[in-house]
Specification:
TTC5_OB_sf; TTC5 protein; TTC5_OB; flat; 74 residues; mainly beta; 30% strand
Length: 74
């Protein structure tokens, strides 16, 4: 689950409701092999319903800002 906090997750056997899913077909080629799979995306792990309940706010990973400036002197 993208953007989920490391300490939160679902386990085998959980009932999972996915409102407004976006289904995407992925197809990648690498070293002569083709890999194809479907992906389901939702806007946030907080929009899921797990075992009849919404996840707590702590299920959302905190934002992380990464900056890079290749032209900056070392």
């Amino acid at each position: 689950v993208y953007n989920a906090a490391p300490a939160w997750g679902v386990t085998v056997g959980d009932a999972l409701g996915v409102p407004d899913p976006v289904l995407t077909q992925h197809q990648h080629q690498h070293q002569g092999q083709t890999f194809a799979f479907l992906g389901i995306r939702v806007s946030s792990p907080l929009s899921l319903v797990v075992n009849g309940r919404r996840p707590p706010a702590s299920a959302l990973a905190p934002p992380c800002l990464a900056l890079s400036n290749p032209s900056a002197p070392l």
